[in-house]
Amino acid sequence: MTKDMLRIKDVLNEIEKLAPPATQEDFDNAGVQAGNVNQTATGALLCLDITEAVVEEAIELGYNLVIAHHPLIFKPLKSLTGSTYIERCLIKACKHDLVIYAAHTNLDNAVGGVNYKLAALLGLQNVRILHQQKENFLKLVKAPDSDLFSLENTWKQTGSGIIGELLREEDELFFLQRVKAILSVDCIRHSQLKGKKVHEIAVCGGNGAFMLPEAIARGANVFITGEAKYNDFYDVEDKILLIVAGHYETEVCTKDIFFDVISEKFPTFAVQITNSNSNPVKYL
Q1: One digit per residue, pLDDT tens: the chain, 284 residues?
Q2: How many CA atoms lie within 13 A of 148 on its CB side?
Q3: What is the maximum span of the chain, computed from C-alpha positions, in angstroms?
Q4: What residue spans define the domains of the chain?
Q5: What residues does 141 pair with on adjacent strands?
Q6: Dist CA 157 CA 111 (whole Å)
């Protein structure tokens, strides 16, 4: 396929091979948020969050596709007046024929998705899904040389979080400092140190504190996530070291995932990671 023939839907199909939309959680709104996917793709701008600055950057670059991790639209819109940043982004995108697309919990749940990327950055070995997704995704498969069809389960390995092992045991404080450096975190929160060595590490990027009981049940020494409540730091007691590294910081790697998928399939296609930092949380 030549560059001139490449449609936006062709680019998005590659993302959806990694993160099938059917594997998103019920509350989610992943997928196309706005725009005509049948138009020729002029370039893709990759981001964690869609903001006005990101949309403006895409327009200046001459790109007509913005791919984000977090959906711009979560709740139905009753009007489109430009009264919120969401509405202003949509209005500007429509004026300039931009397609806005998000791969959210389907990318969280994917093999090779957010948590696998975090596990690779941390150097974890023997990685497994922490919480298997309950749904079975079935398709009809025709048997070779036969008129018979059977049901085959697809995407068997989708699920939330990752658990894996360090190559060797590490001191708690050393591991904390390493996490801070790897994720470029300005400030890191953690539960009380116990002076133990850590080896079995559980990870869930973003708002993953709901996975804490499962991480404890699976025997993890450490659980890393982006957000947690005050009482979560009490509830761990001495069962596990809780590390809260920031929602943005634990999911900003999604931009690299998108980049690798697209550039590997379409090496001459214009794809770029945004220069805009959309983290709404600031540290003093």
Answers
A1: 444 589 999 999 999 999 999 999 999 999 999 999 999 999 999 999 999 999 999 999 999 999 999 999 999 999 999 999 999 999 999 999 999 999 999 999 999 999 999 999 999 999 999 987 655 554 544 555 555 554 444 555 678 899 999 999 999 999 999 999 999 998 999 999 989 999 999 999 999 999 999 999 999 999 999 999 999 999 999 899 999 999 999 999 999 999 999 999 999 999 999 999 999 998 88
A2: 7
A3: 67
A4: 3-104+252-273, 109-245
A5: 150
A6: 7
**Superfamily classification of domain 109-245:** NIF3 (NGG1p interacting factor 3)-like (3.40.1390.30)
Place of tokens 């998000």: 102
Nearest CA-CA partner of 201 in 89, 119, 284, 140: 119
CA geometry: angle 188, 194, 197, nearest 5 deg: 90
Q: Looking at the domain that runs over 3-104+252-273, which CATH code has it been given?
A: 3.40.1390.30
Q: What per-residue string of b and e applies to 24-62 under the rule 16 or more CB within 10 Å gives b?
A: beeebebbebbbebeeebbbbbbbbbbbebbbebbbeee
Instruction: Say if 3-104+252-273 and 109-245 have the same CATH topology.
Output: yes
State the Cα–Cα distance between residues 127 and 113, nearest whole angstrom.
13
For 205, the token pair is 């990027």
